[in-house]
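cron nightly-structures :: item 1 of 1
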Amino acid sequence: MDLNVIDGIVKVSACVCGKDGVISRVEEDSMYQFIHDRYPEYLKKRFESVLDEFFLEDIQIETYISDVKNFGLNSFVVELCRFSAGSDGLDIKENIALDKVKKMLGESK
């Protein structure tokens, strides 16, 4: 797997998790563990670097989604967002963002 694609997926999930105003440590840990369980080559140091980069960027969720939607990982992206954002309770704003991700990726179930 191209690690740059996973970087983009992390940013999509970070957008969803951050919609309530903060990405909690629980959400970060859940996000990393979910990714690492499927892609063990994706290391914590890289994950943390991608999150740091995310916080410095001013990019909308639609851009991140368009960067990752053509790699056959749409269900993985949605499940990651649902799992990580829900790990500390799914806020209404996070739920709206999750719905947007599902619609943009054609995963509206």
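cron nightly-structures :: done
The first helix runs from residue 3 to 17.
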